Amino acid sequence: EVQLVESGGGLVQPGGSLRLSCAASENPYNDYCMGWFRQAPGKEREGVALINGAGGTGYSLSVKGRFSISKDNAKNTGYLQMDRLNPQDTAMYYCAIRLYSGCSWSKGDFDYWGQGTQVTVSA
């Protein structure tokens, strides 16, 4: 079973940046999709960024142009670079992996989840 551990969250002022990391306990092999999701209090968990085995990426409209997803297969680690943060980005951020399949925006399609890292954007 693959275990995922997120890190890099914290408190940041509006307009600031954070870089989240997602470390996998083992190599899930290159044929997987990694997704970053977020959940604000009282709201559904939503997908914000996806990256597939070939390195193709996708972003939600709310973060496109501000967030960038990447991964380092040699380090079994994925990243979410978040720039120009605003208070609406405040949420718990989770990474997830879907094995042997293409990417999906549906959280139910992912096999493994991390415990989450809190991002708070406030002055």
Low-confidence stretches: none
State the major sheet: 7 strands, mixed
What is the average of the pLDDT values? 94
Looking at the structure, what is the overall shape? globular
Helix proportion of residues, in percent? under 10%
Q: Tally of extended strands?
A: 11
Query: Secondary-structure element order, as H and E?
Result: EEEEEEEEEEE
The percentage of residues in β strands lies in over 45%
Q: What is the radius of gyration?
A: 13 Å
Termini gap: 40 Å
Q: What is the count of DSSP helices, taking H or I runs of 4+ residues?
A: 0
Structural class of the helices, strands and pairings?
mainly beta
What does this protein look like?
The protein is an all-beta fold and 123 residues long. 0% of the residues lie in helices and 48% in strands. 33% of the residues are buried. Strands 2, 4, 5, 6, 9, 10 and 11 form a 7-stranded mixed β-sheet that branches. The protein is built from no helices and 11 strands. It has strands at residues 4-7, 10-12, 18-24, 32-39, 46-51, 57-59, 67-72, 77-82, 91-99, 112-113, 117-121.
